Amino acid sequence: MSGGPLPPPDGLVAGAVEALSSARHVCVLTGAGISAESGIPTFRDALTGLWASFRPEELATPEAFERDPEFVWQWYEWRRELIRSSQPNAGHLALVRLARLAPSLTLVTQNVDGLHQRAGSPLVLEYHGNILRDRCVVEQIVAERSPGGGGNLPRCASCGGLLRPDVVWFGEMIPVEALVAAEDAANDCDVFLSIGTSSLVYPAAGLAEIALQRGVPVIEVNPSPTDLTRHADFVLRGPSGTILPALVEALGQGDSARNPQ
Ligand code: APR
Q1: What residues does ligand 1 touch, defined as CB less than 6 Å away?
Q2: Considering Cα of 181, then 184, then 191, then 172, what sign does the dihedral take?
């Protein structure tokens, strides 16, 4: 993508379009907000967020699972049903298009819902794992369920060990491959796009800080202010399902204007 920018549509900021239109490598970090318009609750939104009705320490820690695995599984099975019955939205789809427009794009997601992959995003770094996979507690690998089940608790088909959702719980390490690849991308990108995240949970929230320290433009897409807002170079205030399609449209128009076929 080369040449000067075109006037941006409403809600967009010229500088953000320009930064993206001249980007060689875009690093994107998404959070629960990008899936909100697919009907999946975020975590911290005041009334609607999951943590408004559930206590994370009772559901999303290894200690909670040890204490009461059935209770934890009930909650994860409820979330899985919600996710299976939801669809990627215009925000997810716009990122698939952005990946085609940008010379290089790294998509890091904190979301465990797999909606980026279902939208068609070619490569997704699952920073917090994936809720639809099971992991064997004994072998610490992604595993199949034993057909016989094991009462209300799923068991590993190969060793009979207890299975847990393949997600990162509070106090646990980020999968090394995703951790390293995401940091490499934040250290190499020339634009950082932070979408639908409160920027409160580390180490994910540290990725934008790497970009800030390097002085590359940081663009935030969020209907509400976050901890990153005052540091971001461009803030696109609105739902990602509206902002991202408009952003990609502006980039696409710019591209075809500059490179008429
Ligand atoms: N479009 C874009 N952003 C939105 C939208 C929307 N339609 N609706 C809400 N948001 C924003 C909110 O304003 C908020 O800033 O999405 C953000 C969601 O923040 P959180 O609920 O804190 O989710 P996230 O940042 O992804 O949480 C990080 O915390 O609970 C853990 O492991 C969990 O991955 C999660 C991590």
Answers
A1: 31-34, 36-37, 42-45, 49, 110, 128, 196-198, 200-201, 222-224, 226, 239-241
A2: positive
